[in-house]
Design brief:
2 helices, elongated
Length: about 130
């Protein structure tokens, strides 16, 4: 007796900058996700945008559900992530990257407080 479910549900969480136009992004999902049922292997229903999943320090997290044949979730998820990247590239949507705001202690309290955004890769242990 086969006890595998008829449909597996998988999720993809995607981080976006707080600056992203959420309504425009949702319109893109509405337009671009349904046709992917013909592109993504193993899908039994079109991918479904499920909304804002959480708020993180430097991004909001959106979630998309995938409904796939049993044992196809890994392959479908990888193919879906590829398609999403291509969709975002076509629409000029960028992903956030971790940033650190660095304050110079010597300048704190001066008239010209300066803030410099630096990616985490640029901050070495000596700087901390």
């Amino acid at each position: 007796m086969n006890s595998a479910p008829a449909v597996s549900c998988g999720y993809i969480s995607i981080n976006f900058s707080y600056d992203v136009d959420l309504l425009s992004l949702e319109a893109i999902f509405e337009q671009e996700l349904p046709p992917l049922i013909n592109t993504i292997p193993g899908l039994v229903k079109p991918p479904r945008y499920q909304g804002v999943s959480s708020f993180e320090n430097s991004s909001i997290v959106l979630r998309i559900a995938l409904f796939v044949e049993p044992y196809m979730s890994g392959k479908a998820k990888r193919a879906m992530q590829r398609e999403l990247k291509l969709i975002f590239d076509r629409h000029g949507i960028e992903f956030p990257y971790p940033q650190v705001v660095v304050h110079n202690a010597a300048e704190i309290g001066s008239e010209e407080d300066s803030e410099e955004e630096v990616s985490e890769e640029e901050v070495s242990e000596e700087d901390v």
